Automatic annotation (TrEMBL):
Name of this protein: RNA-binding protein KhpB
Similarity field: Belongs to the KhpB RNA-binding protein family.
Primary localization: cytoplasm
GO MF, one annotated term: RNA binding
Region feature (Jag_N domain): 5-55
Pfam families: Jag_N (PF14804), KH_KhpA-B (PF13083), R3H (PF01424)
A GO biological-process term: regulation of cell shape
Assembly and binders: Forms a complex with KhpA.
Keywords noted in UniProt: Cell shape, Cell wall biogenesis/degradation, Chaperone, Coiled coil, Cytoplasm, RNA-binding
GO cellular component: cytoplasm
Keyword Chaperone (UniProt): yes
Cited HAMAP family: KhpB (MF_00867)
Gene designation: khpB
Length: 205
């Protein structure tokens, strides 16, 4: 995060001088007025230059990355955060030792981190950004596990000829179950309950 103090005949000129040196626009910085300056007699005699301190602000993605590093540090886990941005959103991929502590039992810890990071990245934003927090390909492995579970429990629902209820899951995991069975000709799915205990039900047709 860069910071610079600049001067000018006016506050506006001082600010423009700082922005020029940082090669940033006003939306990317915080401006603190140090001295408003003084025009002086006839704009010359006794004049005093204006001074401002201009600080570069972190982008929402950088704030999300720093949040994850700080949380991991509080957990006594050292991580490196690799960021991938595309039109679908941003993925924070966590790399480091003791990464199992970050993932947690059944992904509870990493799911909580994803939710909190989502709040950090989307704070005061007009456009919603999808946030994924991953570690050691956990998301891909979890997706495969849930798809296999969906098919296994669909067969169970058909065999017993009654609805089968899954354990509570976050919405993005429930979506994996729904998607895995959406083309199944003999079962349908729906979600029931209230967050954070909302769950998927597999129903024989």
């Amino acid at each position: 995060m860069r910071e610079i103090t600049a001067s000018g005949r006016t506050i506006e000129e001082a600010k423009e001088n700082a922005l020029s040196q940082l090669d940033l626009d006003e939306s990317q910085v915080r401006v603190d007025i140090i001295d408003e300056g003084k025009k002086g007699l006839l704009g010359v005699f006794g004049s005093k230059r204006a001074y401002v301190k201009v600080t570069e602000m972190k982008s929402a993605v950088e704030e999300g990355k720093q949040f994850l590093v700080d949380i991991a540090k509080d957990m006594n886990v050292s991580i490196d955060v690799q960021v991938k941005e595309d039109q679908n959103g941003v993925v924070f991929d966590l790399v480091g030792e003791k990464i199992g502590l970050i993932i947690g039992k059944r992904g509870q810890t990493i799911n909580a981190l994803q939710y909190l990071t989502h709040l950090v990245v989307n704070k005061n934003k007009d456009e919603y950004v999808t946030v994924v927090v991953d570690a050691e390909d956990y998301r891909a492995r979890r997706k495969e596990t849930l798809e296999n579970l969906a098919n296994k429990l669909a067969n169970k629902a058909l065999k017993l000829n009654k609805e089968v209820r899954l354990e509570p899951m976050p919405s993005f995991e429930r979506k994996i179950i729904h998607t895995a069975l959406q083309d199944h000709s003999k079962v349908s799915t729906y979600s029931d309950g209230r967050d954070p205990n909302r769950y998927v039900v597999i129903k024989p047709e």
